[in-house]
Each structure stands twice: as C-alpha cells, then as structure tokens.
C-alpha cells in the first residue's frame, strides 16, 4: 500500500506486509541512482516482494532527488529522515516491530542509509533538523554498493561529478555540507552495519567501501565488509542472484542481532 509521509508529491513510501504473524520485523528500502530523479523506488519493489515471502515487512521509500523541486541539498536528506521517522506513526497501525528496523540502501541509497544511522551526531540546529526531535532508533544498516564517503565520491568524480551536483559544490567550496552529509564524517554510527560490495562494480569502486570500513574500524564501530567476487553494481538488487541470497542472510543476522 502507498502511504504519504509528507505533503509533497514524492514524499511517500510503499509498505509491504507479509502474511505472517505480527509484529513484523521491518526493512526500510532506499533506492539509488546517484541522487538523480532518473531512477525511482521501483528499483526496490522486487526486493520488498522477496522480503515479504520471508516474513519481513518493507517500507520502500521515495524521496525528492536532483532534478525535482526541493531535491538535492538539503531536501533529499530531510525526506529520507522524515520517511523513517514516519514509522513511529505507521508502525502501530500495521503491526510493525519498531524494535527491529533495518535500513537497506543501494548505491546512493546506501549513502542515505548510513547517513540515517549517523544523524544522531548532527547539530541540534541547522539545515538538516527535522520536525522529529529524536530520530527513530535503527537496529542496523546494510549498504549495497553504497557511496559511503562523499569526499571520495567527489575526488573520484563518480557519475560525472555528481557529489558537487548533490551538495552544491566541491569539498573545498562547501566543506560544512560534506561534514554534515557524509557517513564517514559521522563515525562511529554505534549500531551494527554491513557493507556489501561486488569486486566487479564499475559504478561505485570497491575501494570506497574498503576505505569507509577501515575508518569505521578505527573508530571502534560495529562494521563488517562483505566483498562479493565478480559481482557488479546491480546484481546486489537482483532477488534472483546469489548475491541477494547472501544479502538476505546478512540482513536477517542484523535484524535479529
């Protein structure tokens, strides 16, 4: 079912409920697309369907992106935060287990998933403050080929310099935006999180997840990196792939940590 979490046209999510006894452990799904509006929530629909078969509810969120009115900095970040916090209201109505909420994000969605886990460290005043004073507590995060470090995204000029497009400038031009938006700058996250990345990924290089994991380990964070030999950028969101079977296993481990 489609439910709104805000008043804008793109502020909605699709909730899929399994035919199993409640309360339902819940996965928030965040699609990628390098924060641009070329791609949308439909990328993650097959994953939500697969999770439902396994007894897991999913909240597949849409959000404003580059090219949408209000998208990019800071609207994209505010939207995903509001979408997750909306589970406080949605959860009791649909028997969701809010003590077992894990976020799975792919590519740019992986960045947003990790950022959600770190936003408790954000200043209490500023451009990323939402209406909710205290963010919903997450049980964990699974980043699939995620853009875990926005400064690295800029340095590597991923997707034709999309980091500058997203944040309105380079790290030298808008350093505060990178500090507030990049998961690396928000470490330690303080919850279990797993980065899954294929070695054959030519959209987001494996080195991005490797460098993030090293930084998280240095901060004594609860982080695991799963490298998938020969796997490309999109196999990790193919529910018929061996990669997805591995991801389901990882997700269930985090859900029931």
Structural description of this entry:
This protein has 257 residues and is α/β, with parallel strands linked by helices. The chain contains nine helices and eight strands. It has helices at residues 45-53, 75-85, 87-93, 108-118, 150-155, 162-167, 175-181, 206-218, 242-255, and strands at residues 2-4, 12-16, 24-30, 57-61, 96-106, 140-144, 193-198, 223-228. Strands 1-2-4-3-5-6-7-8 form an eight-stranded mixed sheet, with helices on both faces. The radius of gyration is 17 Å and the shape is globular.
Strand content: 15-25%
Q: Structural class of the helices, strands and pairings?
A: alpha/beta
Number of helix segments? 9
> What's the order of the H and E elements?
EEEHEHHEHEHHHEHEH
**Widest sheet: strand order?**
1-2-4-3-5-6-7-8
Number of strands: 8
The biggest beta sheet reads: 8 strands, mixed
Mean pLDDT: 96
Distance between the termini: 28 Å
Shape: globular
Helix content: 25-40%
Task: Flag low-confidence runs.
Answer: none
Rg, Å, rounded: 17 Å
Short key terms for the protein model shown above:
single chain, 257 residues, alpha/beta, 8-stranded mixed β-sheet, 9 helices, 8 strands, globular
Short summary:
With 257 residues, this protein is an alpha/beta fold. Helices cover 33% and strands 19% of the residues.
């Amino acid at each position: 079912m489609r439910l709104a979490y805000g008043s804008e046209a793109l502020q909605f999510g699709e909730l899929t409920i399994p035919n199993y006894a409640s309360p339902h452990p819940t996965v928030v799904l965040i699609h990628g697309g390098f924060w641009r509006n070329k791609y949308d929530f439909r990328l993650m629909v097959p994953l939500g369907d697969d999770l439902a078969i396994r007894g897991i509810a999913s909240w597949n969120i849409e959000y404003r992106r580059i090219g949408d009115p209000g998208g990019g900095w800071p609207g994209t970040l505010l939207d995903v935060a509001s979408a997750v916090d909306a589970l406080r209201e949605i959860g009791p109505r649909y028997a969701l287990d809010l003590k077992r909420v894990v976020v799975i994000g792919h590519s740019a969605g992986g960045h947003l998933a990790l950022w959600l886990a770190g936003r408790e460290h954000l200043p209490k005043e500023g451009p990323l403050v939402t209406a909710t004073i205290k963010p919903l507590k997450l049980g964990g995060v699974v980043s699939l080929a995620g853009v875990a470090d926005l400064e690295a995204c800029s340095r590597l000029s991923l997707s034709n310099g999309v980091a500058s497009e997203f944040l309105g400038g380079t790290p030298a031009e808008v350093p505060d935006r990178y500090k507030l938006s990049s998961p690396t700058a928000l470490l330690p996250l303080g919850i279990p999180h797993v980065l899954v990345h294929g070695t054959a990924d030519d959209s987001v290089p494996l080195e991005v997840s490797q460098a993030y994991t090293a930084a998280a380990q240095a901060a004594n964070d609860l982080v695991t990196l799963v490298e998938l030999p020969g796997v490309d950028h999109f196999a990790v969101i193919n529910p018929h792939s061996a990669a997805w079977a591995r991801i389901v296993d990882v997700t269930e481990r985090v859900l029931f940590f």
